[in-house]
Amino acid sequence: SSCSQNLFLKDRFGASQLVVFVNEEQGVQSCFFNATYTITLENELNNEGTGAQAILSTLIGNVEVGNEEIAFDFTDQVNGRILAPESSYDGPPLTLDVVIDLTVVTNNQVTSFLTANSPKGFQCNDIDSLNFVTGLAPPPNIPTRS
Question: Over the stretch 2-51, which tens digit does the pLDDT of each residue have?
Fold first, then answer.
C-alpha cells in the first residue's frame, strides 16, 4: 500500500487483512465488538396471582453468531438455588462474552433452556430466545485520513 491512498477496515494485503488500527484523530477503530450477554432469571406469579418456590436445576443454551454456534451450561451456578415467588436470581452473574464482526451483516440468536422443580416435585421448564441482526453492509465506512 502507498501513503497516497486511504486504508479501510477489511482491506487485504496478500494473506493479511486490516481489522483494527489506531491513529490520533480517530483512536482505535476495529471491525469487532465484544458483546456480553447476561441471563436473568425471575420467578413470577401465575395467572391466578399465586406462586411457588422454584428449585433451579439446569440452565443451558447457545449463542448463534452467523454460522457459528457457541454452547453454554450454567447448571453448576444455578443447581439447587431456590427462587421464592416474585424474586430474581441473585447468585454469580450468568454472563457470556462473544465477539461480533460489525462489518458483516449477521443474524444472531441467544437461546436458553431452564429446568426447575417445585417443592412438591413438579418439574417446570422454560425457554427464552433473543434474535437480532448486527453489522453494516458495504461499502467500507471507516476510512483513515490522508
Answer: 667 777 788 888 898 888 888 888 888 888 889 999 999 999 877 677 78
Q: Is the pLDDT of residue 129 over 70?
A: yes
Q: How many residues are listed for the chain in this entry?
A: 146
**Which residues lie across from 12 on neighbouring strands?**
17
Residue 122 has phi, psi (to 5 degrees) of: -75, 135
**Grid coordinates given for 86:** 416474585
Main-chain dihedrals φ then ψ at residue 7, nearest 5 degrees = -100, 150
| Alpha carbon distance 70, 52 (integer Å) | 33
Within 13 Å, how many C-alpha atoms sit on residue 5's CB side?
A: 5
Q: Which amino acid is located at 63 in the chain? A: V
Flag whether the pTM goes above 0.70: yes
Residues near 84 by beta carbon (within 8 Å), at least 6 away in sequence: 43, 53
Cβ(20)–Cβ(28) under 8 Å? yes
